[in-house]
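Usage

Read records sequentially. Each one opens with the input sequence:
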Amino acid sequence: MIDVQLARTRQQLDRCLAMRRTVFTEELGVPPEVDVDGHDVLDGECLHFLVTDGGRDIGAIRCTPQEDGTVRLQRFCIHKDSRSHGAGRLTLRFLEGFFAGRGYHALCLDAKCSAEGFYLKCGYTAVSGVFEEAGVPHVAMRREL
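and closes with the structure output:
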């Protein structure tokens, strides 16, 4: 069963960072200094969420609430063994409910072009043309809550 929980302890944050290291650094070759930054702390401006399946860590996402009532989604990863089983979609649905319940009106993100179809299926809309970020083509996307 997929569960998404807000990281409230150092141990939970460390588990989020370990998932990101597994997916971004080990699988995708993203240098650790590009992935981890000063926003990866507890009690900062970002909220970190851990995704589990039956108690096993399978993903993580970092969210940054904005003053304009939107939330910026970043560093979203699902372990390769858990992709195509609904974990990403369930994570997004959880976050949509979580932030809508706190008065936010939209979620925004910069998606790799290779993931654009996934986000479109989840109800997100492209709001930009293609641009490069860290040498990878991306598109800005948004979903109203």
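Summary fields computed downstream for this record:
- Strands lie at 2-6, 47-53, 56-65, 70-78, 106-112, 125-126, 131-133, 136-144.
- The first helix runs from residue 10 to 27.
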